[in-house]
Design brief:
mainly alpha, 2 domains, 3 helices, flat
């Protein structure tokens, strides 16, 4: 599969100007995007094969529904969801941070 990572693949983050905090923030974001935290949580305890099948089937159904919903929005069959407004006290991200 293209874009699917295996265990042992390398995540690389460059540290610029000795700014460890920024590099760590970027690494965490990358790990979140790759699903590493979810994988670690799943592997922290034993999961019975029957439970695994149920979970994987539910995830597949969720993915299929999401793809169908996006396709229906694209084709104009259903209305797109309203854009979320930031919570009180939070600011909107600037253009470069999106």
């Amino acid at each position: 599969m293209v874009g699917h990572r295996q265990i042992g693949d390398i995540l690389q983050v460059l540290v610029r100007d000795n700014n460890i905090d920024q590099a760590l923030k970027f690494l965490k974001k990358k790990m979140q995007r790759e699903g590493i935290f979810r994988e670690m949580k799943l592997r922290s305890a034993y999961e019975k094969p029957s439970e695994r099948k149920v979970r994987e089937r539910a995830e597949a159904i969720r993915r299929a529904r999401k793809l169908a919903r996006k396709a229906a929005i694209r084709e104009g069959l259903i209305a797109a969801p309203k854009p979320r407004t930031p919570a009180p006290g939070q600011r909107r991200p600037t253009f470069g941070q999106r």
